[in-house]
Amino acid sequence: MALSSPYPDVEIPNVSVPEFVLAAGREKPDAPALIDGLKGDVITHGQLAQYVDRVAANLHARGLRKGDVVAVFCPNTPWFPVVFHGIAAAGCVMSPINSLYTPDEIAFQLKDSGAKILITIGLFLDRATAAAEKSPVDEIVVLDGAEGHANLFDLLGADAPSVQVDIDPANDLVTLPYSSGTTGLPKGVMLTHRNLVANVAQCLPLLKTGADERIIAVLPFFHIYGLTVLMNQGLALGGAVVTLPRFDLEDFLRTIQDQKITRAFVAPPILLALAKHPAVDQYDLSSLTSITSGAAPLDEQLALAAQNRLRKGADDGVTVAQGYGMTELSPVSHTSPDPSALPPGVTEVPKGSVGFAIPNTECRLIDPGTGEDAAEGERGELWVRGPQVMKGYLNNPDATAGTLDSDGWLHTGDVAIVDANGCYTVVDRVKELIKYKGYQVAPAELEAVLINHPEIADAAVIGVPEKESGEELPKAFVVRAPGSEITEDAVMAYMAEKVAPHKKIRFVEFIEQVPKSAAGKILRKDLKARA
C-alpha cells in the first residue's frame, strides 16, 4: 500500500537547475549569496549570475557541449557553486569527486563517467595529475592557478559569447555523483535537472524561512547532501551560503557566531561535538534557529543533549532534528519540518525519527521476508517513489534494475517503521553499506583491495559500532596466505595507502575461513555475531 506525504503536492517547475536555484537572487542582486567563512570574501547574487554565465560561455568555447561530463575535485569554496551552475548552464554534467579520494579512486571515476575536463585546486593537483595519467582527460583546470594549467580567471573570461542551451529538465542529466547504492562498487547516479529542482521545491514548504537566512556549509558540496540541501536550497531561498573547506570545530563555532548563522545542516559527529566539547560554551550561537542532521543515523539522546545544551535552559531556541535520504533520491525523501510547519494535528516530531515524507513523495514498507507490504505498525524495507528518484545508474542496467523497479519504486535497503501521524523512524539496514561520518563505505570495494595483497588469501569486511558515537567502523576479517605472518598493523597500513581516510580498516581479525553461502555470498551476519 502506498503511503502519501501528509503535505500537499507542490508544483515542480519545468526549468533547469540554474534557472530555478538562482531565481530568488535576481530580486536582490546586491545581497550576499556566497561568503567564505574563513576569509570573509563575498559573492553577491548579482555577481553569481554573471559568473555562471561566464563559466558556461568559456566551457562552451573550450569545445564542451551538452551532455559532456566535467569532473570537479575541490573542497567547499564560494567558487564551487559558481562552477557547478556554470557547468549546468552549459548543458554539461558535473561529476563531483570526494576530496579524500586517492589517485586510483579518482581515476576510476574519471574513466567510468567519461569526464572530459577535471577542475581542481593546487593542493589537490598531485592526486589529480596522477589520476589523469591513468584515466586521461582533455584538460585539468586549476582554479587557484598552477603553471601550465588554465585557472579560474580563464573560466570567467569576458570574450566568449554567452550560450543558451536547450535543456530538457526531465531527461537531461545535471550531476553524476558516485554512490555505492545498496551494494557493490561505486556507481554513477544519474540525476536530472528535474530531480534536483524537484527536491529543492519539495523541501522548501517544510522550512519557515526569512529573506535573511544564513546557512553554514561545512558538509562537502561533493556529497549530494551538501550539493542539494546546503548549496542549492540555500541559494534558492535567496539567502547566504557561508562556506568552510573542512570541519574544524573552532572555525565552525566562530563562523556561526561572526556570520550570525541561522540554519545548519550537519552529520551526527558534528552534533556529538556540539553536545560534549567544552569549546562550545565560548561562543555565542544564539542566532541558530535550526540544526538538521542527515547522512547517518542520529541517536535520540544525542539530539536532545545537543538541543538542550544550545538552548541553555530556555524553553525555545534552536531545534535539533533529523532527515533521511540517499544519493539516489537527490537526496531527500523525509525530513523533520520546522516547528511552525508541522502537519495538521501534529504537535512534535520524535527526536529519534527522520520526520515525514516530503511533498510529492510516496512510500511503502515491505516485509523483507515475504516481499509484501508490512502489516500496520510493523517495520519493513522503505521504498520511495517521487520526482526526486534518480534516472538510474550510469551504464549499469543490472544495478539499476536491482534498486529501481518497473513501477518507479526505489528500494532503499533501509528498514523503517511509521507511526499513526506518518512520522518515520529508520531502525535497521537491509543493505551491507557501512556508514562512517556520513560517508558510504562499500565492503565489497575494501575486500577487493585487501585480496590484492599477496599475503592475503581471502577477506571480508563489516561495520562494527563505536561505543560512544555509534559510528560504524570498518573491520576486516582476513585469511592469511599460506606461509604468511602478516600482522594487523601491516594490513591497516596497506589499506591506508590504498583508500581514502574514511574507508580505512580500523580493526583486523585473522580467521581460518570466510563464512560463505553455497552460492559464494559472504555471510556477514555470522561475522557480525563474532565481532
Distance between the termini: 37 Å
Spatial arrangement of strands, main beta sheet: 1-18-19-21-22-17-16-15-14-13-11-12-2-3
Rg over CA atoms, rounded to whole Å, is 23 Å
CATH topology of the domain at 43-167: Rossmann fold
The count of β-strands is 27
The low-pLDDT segments are none
GO molecular function: ATP binding; CoA-ligase activity
Domain AMP-dependent synthetase/ligase: 25-394
Pfam family, one: AMP-binding_C
Family: Belongs to the ATP-dependent AMP-binding enzyme family.
Architecture overview:
With 531 residues, this protein is an alpha/beta fold. Among the domains are: 43-167, Rossmann fold; 434-530, ANL, C-terminal domain (GMP Synthetase, Chain A, domain 3). The chain is built from 16 helices and 27 strands. The strands form 5 sheets. It has a 14-stranded mixed beta sheet with strand order 1-18-19-21-22-17-16-15-14-13-11-12-2-3, sandwiched between helices. A 4-stranded parallel beta sheet has the order 5-4-6-7, with helices on both faces. Helix 5 (103-113) packs across helix 6 (125-134), helix 8 (193-203) packs across helix 9 and helix 11 (268-276) crosses helix 12 (300-311). The two termini are 37 Å apart. One of its GO terms (molecular function) is ATP binding. Residues 25-394 form the AMP-dependent synthetase/ligase domain. Keywords: ATP-binding, Ligase, Nucleotide-binding.
